[in-house]
Amino acid sequence: MSYFDAASSVPLHPVATQALHAALDEGWADPARVYREGRRARLLLDAAREAAAEAVGCRPDELSFTSSGTAALHRGVAGALAGRRRAGRGLVVSAVEHSAVLHAAAAHEAAGGTVTEVGVDRLGRVSPAAYAQVLGADTALAVLQSANHEVGTLQPVAEVADLCADRGVPLLVDAAQSLAWGPAALDAGARWSLLAGSAHKWGGPAGVGLLAVRKGVRFAAPGPADERESGRAPGFENIPAIVAAAASLRAVRAQAAAEGARLRTLVDRIRTEVPRLVPDAEVVGDPEHRLPHLVTFSCLYVDGEALLHGLDRAGFSVSSGSSCTSSTLMPSHVLRAMGVLSEGNVRVSLPPGTPGADVERFLAVLPGVVAEVRAQLGAPGGESAPAPAARAAPEGPAVVIDALGRRCPVPVIELAKALGGVPVGATLSVLSDDEAAKLDIPAWCGMRGQEYVGAQPSAKGGTAFTVRRLS
Amino acid sequence: MSYFDAASSVPLHPVATQALHAALDEGWADPARVYREGRRARLLLDAAREAAAEAVGCRPDELSFTSSGTAALHRGVAGALAGRRRAGRGLVVSAVEHSAVLHAAAAHEAAGGTVTEVGVDRLGRVSPAAYAQVLGADTALAVLQSANHEVGTLQPVAEVADLCADRGVPLLVDAAQSLAWGPAALDAGARWSLLAGSAHKWGGPAGVGLLAVRKGVRFAAPGPADERESGRAPGFENIPAIVAAAASLRAVRAQAAAEGARLRTLVDRIRTEVPRLVPDAEVVGDPEHRLPHLVTFSCLYVDGEALLHGLDRAGFSVSSGSSCTSSTLMPSHVLRAMGVLSEGNVRVSLPPGTPGADVERFLAVLPGVVAEVRAQLGAPGGESAPAPAARAAPEGPAVVIDALGRRCPVPVIELAKALGGVPVGATLSVLSDDEAAKLDIPAWCGMRGQEYVGAQPSAKGGTAFTVRRLS
Hints:
seven-stranded mixed sheet, TusA-like (chains A, B), alpha/beta, Translation Initiation Factor IF3, Cysteine desulfurase/sulfurtransferase TusA family protein (chains A, B), TusA-like_sf (chains A, B), PyrdxlP-dep_Trfase_small (chains A, B), homodimer
C-alpha cells in the first residue's frame, strides 16, 4: 500500500512514538498538582511548550495546546473576535480556508457578525490587494491559511500580515499544512497575531492542536471558564500526546529542507507526467509557490469516487474534492473558488519518506484506472459509449441535452458527446441540477477550446448551461 | 511513592497501554476516508464506541467521544440548554458539581440564562425533594453528579432522574467519578438523558471524554458546525486514545466489584483510624453510600498546603480542598456547600491495585506529619506556641482577636488559644478577612462543643466572628 494522503493525516513519526511511550509513564498526572507526579508532568508540559514555541516562532507563554487543530481554529477565531468586539464585528477570511475556519465564520455570522470572503485566482492564491480592499474600520479579525490544504498553493502571508498590522487588525494564520515544512512554507517572520496548527498533520498524535496568541493581542476565550492552558483551552492537558507532538515537530523540522526538496521533485514528476499520461487531465494549484509534497489534478469524464476506489484497489490512498466524494454532493469549496474542473479530482500528498518508486508505480497505474472508469461511464474515447440523449429544439440552442437527475461527471460526458453533433458556431444547452456542473461545464469549455455562453434557470428545473461549438 | 489521588487522574491501565500501541499503528488515518487506512480506522472507532456504549448503558449511536471530560460537560450542558431553549432558560445544578459544570452554568448565566443551585446536607448529598422543588416550567436542564469527586458521596441519581423524567426535564449525569466502578456507583438503570465521563479517571489516556445523549433528547451542539462524532464533538477523532479508553473501561469494569470491595475495606481503615490517630481530625462525606476508593478528612490547626508538602516528602501524593491550596484562596466549593471544616483538608483516593501495606504506612506517617505542621504553626497542643494577640474590649465580646491579614488556619488557631482565657459563658470575637474562616470557625465550634454566635462586618475590615465559651 502507498498512502498518499498526508494532508489529511500522517502516521505517527517514530520519534513521536518513542516520546509518547516515555511520557505515558511520566506524564499522566495532573500538572496543576504539587506532588511529585504532578511536578513531573508539569516539567514535561513546560519543555514541550518551549520546543513547540521555538518551532512556531513565538514565546512559550504565547502558545497553548488545544485538543485538535479544529479546536485551535474554532477557539482562535471566536476568542480573537470576542476580544476585539469593541472594534467591530467584521471577520475577513479567504474563500479557500479550511472548513473549520469557514464553520467558525458561519457561527459568527449566525450570531450577528459579518463575514467577508476574499476570492482567489485560478491558482488558489489570494491577492494582498484584495485583502487590503476589504479590511475596514469594523474588521475585528482577518484569517489566512499559510498554504492551501487541497491544492498546495502558498498564500502571501507576510504581505497580508503587514497590511493587517498597518491597519491594526489581528491576523490569524492557519498553519496546519505548513508547520511540518518550516520557514519555507510558513513565511517566517510574518507579523501574524494568532497562529493555529494540528499535530497529526506533522507526524504527532491526534488530539493535539496548538494556538499561539501574540502578547498584546486582545483575546477573550469562548465558552465556560477553565484555568488550563492560560484559560485558552479547557480540559485536562493531554501531556503524553503533547510531548510526542512537540518531539515530532522538532524531528520533522530537522529534515524539512532535505525531505521537502526530495518530495518536490517527486511532485514535479506527477505534475509533468499526469497531463502527458492521462488524456484530458488538468493539474491545478500554483506550480512553483506551493507545498513541497502536494499536488492536485482533475480528469474529465471521470467519477471521482470511482477513481478513488480504483486507486485504492491498486494500492493507493488519495483523497478527492469531487462532488461525488462529498456528503453534500458539492464540489470542494476550494476548487469552486478557483473555478477549476472538479470532476475526477485527485489530491496526492506524499508523507515524508515516500519512496520515489511508489510515485513511479502510481504514474504507471493511474492511466489504466482512469481509462477503466471512463469506459464504465461511456465517456468520449471510452468503450461502449451510448448514444447521447439529444433532441432538436425549435428555438434557441440547436440541441438541448437533458441531464437532470444525473450526477457528475455525466452532464459533462453528455455535453462532450453531443457537441460533435452540432455545427461549428451553433450552441447546445445542457440541463443539469448537479452542483458540479456549474464548475465543470465552464472548465470543460476552457480545456476544450469551446465557448461557454452562460447559465440560466431552466423551466424544466435545474439550470440550462449553454455552450457554443468553436471547433 | 504512593499515589493516592486517583480521583484526579490515574496512570494508564496496562490494557490501555497495549491497546494504544496497537491502535497507533492501525488507527491514525481519517475514519471519514474511503481508502483502506481510513476504513481500518473507522472499524476501530466503531468497535470502541460499541464497547463504551455497553459499559455506559446506552446505544452506540447515542455516544460521542469528546476531547476531555470537561469538553463533554461543557458541550453537554450547552447543547442540551440550546436544544431546549423553547422550553425555557432555567438550569438546575447541585452546589457540589465539578467546577466544569459550575463554569458551564456561569457561562449560561452570563448569556442571560438562570441557574438554580440545589444545596446538600453535611454529608454532601442532595435531597431529591430539594430538586423537585426547584424544577420549574422553564427548567431546560438539570445536572447531577453520580458521586462527588471531593468527598465520595453517592448522589440519588435514580430518584432525581425519575423526578426529572416525570416533569419532562432532561437530566445530565456527570459520571466522571463513577464509570470505573460500574452499576454500584452509577445507579444503573437511572432514566438519565445525558451522561458525561472522562477516560483518564478510569485508566484510559487523557484526551478522551464521552458524552451520551439519549435518542429523543433535544440537543443543539454549541459552537461551529463539524461533521465528526454526530456533530457533537468537533475535531479529528483521536482514535488510538479512544480505543485505549474503551479497552480500559472494559478491563476496570471486569474487576470493579472485587477491587471496589477490597478498596472499600482500606478506606474504612482510614475512616476509622484517622480520628483515632490524629487529634482534632474530622472525616467528611457519607460513610456508607459512597465511592469505594475515596475518603476525605480535615485536621484542625493545620495548613493544608504544608500538610500536602509534608505528605509528599513522606512519599504520599494526595490532594486538598483547603483554601491555601487553591489559586483563589477559597476553600473548595464542595466543603463550603457541606458546611464542614476546610483547614488541613486531605482527599485520599486509592487507584485500583493499591496495596493494603501502603495504606498502613500512610496511617503510620500521617500523625507525625500533622503534628509537625501544627508545631510549626504554634497550634494548641503543639510546641513553641506564642502568646495569643488578645486584648480586652470595653464593650461587647470579652476578647477581640485581630487576625486580619492572616491566612487559614491561623485565625482558628488564635481562636482556640484565646478561648481558654475567657470565662465560661463569655464571648470572644475573631476579626478575619480569610475566606476559610467563614467555614472553619463555625466548624471548629461544632467540633469543640462551643457556641458559634454569628458573624458581622467589622469596622476594622473583614468580618468579626463571635464565639461563646460553653466549656
